[in-house]
Amino acid sequence: MALTLYHGEPAANSLKVLLGIKEKGVPFESKLMNLHKFEQHEPWFQAINPMGQVPVLIHDGMVINESTVINEYLDEAFDGPALRPADPYGRAKMRIWTKFVDEYFCPALSFIGWHHMIKNITDKLTPEEFEEKLARIPLKEQQDKWRTSAKQGYTQEQLDNWGRQVKTSVERMEKQLARTEWLVGDQFTLADVSCYAMAYAMPTRSPQLLADKPGVTRWHKAMSEREGTKAAMAMPNPVRETLEAARAGISSTLR
Amino acid sequence: MALTLYHGEPAANSLKVLLGIKEKGVPFESKLMNLHKFEQHEPWFQAINPMGQVPVLIHDGMVINESTVINEYLDEAFDGPALRPADPYGRAKMRIWTKFVDEYFCPALSFIGWHHMIKNITDKLTPEEFEEKLARIPLKEQQDKWRTSAKQGYTQEQLDNWGRQVKTSVERMEKQLARTEWLVGDQFTLADVSCYAMAYAMPTRSPQLLADKPGVTRWHKAMSEREGTKAAMAMPNPVRETLEAARAGISSTLR
Questions:
Q1: Which pLDDT tens digit goes with each residue over B47-57?
Q2: ipTM at complex level
Q3: pTM for the complete prediction?
Q4: How many whole angstroms from its chain centre is CA B18?
């Protein structure tokens, strides 16, 4: 059996799959990509994933992209602890959470992070180098995101709106976690994995978001103490410096 | 066993679940909502789904929202023809399609439809009635969408961008359907259901989109001839007139 995971640093969607694979306990070959050096847009990687995005899982030649889809695949294809409820209604509740993360929580956080981080990346490039890197991005939406963030930046109104969406996301989590141990009741599931991949840095980067959230605070601590989380967070982080440099900006948007 | 489906006319996300439930062949009680009369925002309905959105499935008291999640639930919880591949890799490929519809294809179509349709709905209201209806919408994103569409409308640049995304979606379908009978190979799945719920009206409303797409054209015909599709499309449509009135506008954006 050959299992290879192409992924970035343990944050956001790459963290989501690293958490999934470590919780499942499946041995895999890690292929770490430096996203801030645009490795995911290189022709050799686009031959693997034409979208030019990580994470990508390759299992005996079968290529799977999309972090949420990969995590359900890992749970279906391998033995190990179940990461999804055994009953259809539980799985439906889990999927409503993972979908909410993908369509609402993650995009809001991603735009905020991008806005505060991109200049640290692109300032090291000449305008010609920047355009050359940009031209290689296969998805027009991603090109637009890079160009807007690197040039004029997003407007305060846009940032405020994404900040509100992040707050709404944490409130939605609190509503559930005030009542149950995990997001889908008494079982740890991929819903927790998806949300933690977004919220992992909140206690240090945006503690104000958790100030009146005892449920999320308790859950975050329980998540952080899991062996799977520790193993995932211990994966190499080639862009830690750039992430740290963006910390104050992200924190101020999420005030 | 009690199975109730709250849904709108057979179009977009309501059509998606009507196709799923008819293909599965499960008897259900239909609760038709008139979305153009804002019934989904009524307090009695928000008591069922706080998001104020259809479709919603209630199975023996268990409430499930989100059309894509409902369709996987129907396939997992009931006997009948399998609507998903039996192997994990096939299911992963199916979920990449259903996710793509939810995050890319559907939003683009939805904004275009809204832009051309909303005035037919809101022109019948006084400004006070409009504000009153608006205030009842629980999701801020939906409020914004209604307000922007009804007042100034979206910009040509936004409409062009969504039009491009719809074209990209159809091209992506063609790339697959030029090679295989259905979107995930030789088995009809929820991937086909999700895409048809978006593309059902294309041959009549935007034939130019299918002009050089033999794969999608063949697939659309095969989809339209399925008994499940015929049964779903035969469900009552209380807003047909409003949809028809928007037809020319939508068609011109998708030229």
A1: 999 999 999 99
A2: 0.96
A3: 0.97
A4: 10
